[in-house]
Design goal:
The chain is an alpha+beta fold. Helices cover 25% and strands 31% of the residues. The protein contains five helices and 15 strands.
Length: 226
């Protein structure tokens, strides 16, 4: 686990109370905050209710719906942001016709009606034009996640997020794992799972297969290692 990772609250009590105050009536009485976690009583909420809840949430709270569960996306630290910018620069230099869109909402209809906000979504320039807050993943070539300093990162970034991306048919899921100091390339989605998973230690040359077709020289990532 990344140093400094702890069982810390997903959000503050004040943010939870503000979220409840703004929540649509169909959801308001279902929300609970126990042991620092946001929970939904009486089962999952539907996508329409989730999208409205995400729309009215306080600016300090970013929500996702993964595997039918309401999740709070962690606030990134400085190294997390630098790694995303590093990946973005590699994409711009090697594939200028593509953009890495940070925290673009994707509607994963095939995966229990989920809605995710990956750290990055690689797609052709202008692909998301006119699609609104929650877009179709059909044109996305790769989703990118960087592990966070929270206790849910194992379940969320190493299990739930790759499953969601694979179910959506996104060709590649790229994970920068700060706990293990590795870059992991998931590819070849089939039947809701990636058939290939290749980890590379920091400092390696990482070749991401088509249709992404990028080569990452990852020595720079050592600068952000704990």
């Amino acid at each position: 686990m990344t140093p400094g990772t702890a069982e810390r609250p997903q959000m503050s009590v004040e943010d939870f109370e503000e979220l409840v105050r703004r929540a649509p009536e169909t959801v308001r009485n279902k929300l609970e905050f126990l042991d620092g976690r946001l929970l939904v009583r009486h089962g999952p909420i539907d996508v329409d209710d989730f999208e409205e809840l995400a729309r009215v949430a306080p600016e300090t709270v970013t929500l996702e719906l993964i595997d039918g569960k309401l999740e709070v996306k962690p606030v990134p630290d400085g190294d997390h942001g630098e790694i995303i910018m590093w990946v973005l620069r590699q994409c711009m230099m090697q594939r200028p016709e593509l953009g890495l869109y940070v925290e673009q909402g994707l509607r994963i209809d095939t995966y229990r009606k989920g809605c995710i906000r990956p750290d990055g979504a690689l797609a052709p320039i202008d692909y998301f034009a006119g699609q609104g807050e929650w877009a179709s993943p059909d044109g996305v070539l790769m989703t990118v996640e960087v592990t966070s300093r929270d206790s849910d990162t194992d379940r969320r970034d190493r299990h739930d997020k790759p499953r969601a991306s694979a179910h959506a048919g996104i060709p590649v899921y790229l994970l920068v794992d700060r706990d293990e100091h590795t870059v992991v390339v998931y590819s070849s989605p089939e039947n809701g799972a990636y058939q290939s998973r290749r980890p590379y230690p920091y400092g390696s040359t990482v070749r991401i297969p088509a249709p992404v077709a990028l080569t990452l020289e990852t020595e720079k990532l050592k600068d952000y290692a704990d």
